[in-house]
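Field reference: sequence -> structure
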Amino acid sequence: MTDLRTTAPPAAAPRRRLLAEIWNRRMLYLLLSPTIIGMIIFQYYPALTAFWGSFHSWDGRRARFVGLFNYQFFLEDPRLLQSWINIFLLLIFNVLSLAMPLLIAYLIYRLPDAVHRYWYRVLVVLPIIAPCFVFIVLWRWLFSLDGGLNLILRSLGVDSQVVWLGNASTALGSIMFMGFPWIEAFTVLIFLAGFMTISREMLEAAAVDGASGWSRFWRIELPQLQGQVKVLVILTFIGTIQDFGRALFMTDGGPGFATMVPGLRMYNAFTQENAYGYASAIGVILFIVILVLTLINQRLIRSSDS
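Structure field:
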C-alpha cells in the first residue's frame, strides 16, 4: 500500500526541479538582474505609464480621469486626420523604394570578381558612418530657395524660385525625395545575403533549362527572396510609422499640416501643448498598430520558412 505521507503531489516534482535549476544557475540570474531591472524601469514602466495616462487629462503634475476622451479627440483631431493620409502616402512610397536597394544588391551579386563585390559592399555601407544631422542639413540646403536643387534647375535654363519645403504642394514630395537614390545599406545587405544563399545547383539547373538574364531573375532568384522581401516590407511599415525626425527637422509638420505624421503630432502634443494624456493616447494607438504589424511579420516569416 502506498504511503500517502511520502507521496508528493503531481505538480510538486516539476516545481522542485525548476527551483533547483534556478538555484544552480543563481549566479547567471544575478548577472542578468541589472539588465532586467533596467528594462523594467526604462521600458516597461514608461509604457504602462503611457497607457494609464491615455485615460487622464494629465499635464505632468495633475491627472484627472477622463475615460476615452483622449481617444475620441484622436478621431476628431484635424492634424491627425491629415497625418494618417501623409503616413499612408509615405508608406506606399517607402515600400516601392525598396526596389532600388534590391537592384543594387542584385548588381553586386552578379559581379564576377569577389574583390569587386567586396569593395562595392564597402562603398554601400560607408555612408552610414556620417551623422544623421549632416544628412538632414544637406537636404535642407538642397531644398532651400538658394539651395542646390534650384541652382541645378537654373543651370538647365529653368527659372526656379520654388521654396520646396514651404509649399504645401511640394513639401511632402520633398521629404519623400530625401535620401535619393534611396539605397540604404542595411536593406542592400539583407537582399545581398538572400541572393548569396541561393544554391548553385538551382542556378545551374536553370541555366541548363535555358533561363538567363531577367528570366532567371524573375523566375528563380527573386522568388527565393520572399522571406527577405516580407521582412523588409514589414520593417519599412514599422519604421515609417515610428519615424517623425525628417518631418520635425525639415518642416515641423508644415506648411499647415502638409507634412504632419502621427509621431510628430504626438511629439508636439507632449512638448508644445503639455497634453501628456493625449500624447499618451497617440502613443498607445501607434503601439497597437506596430504590434499588429509585428505579429503579421512573425506569421509571414513562419509561413516563408515552412
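Note: The two ends are 52 Å apart (CA to CA).
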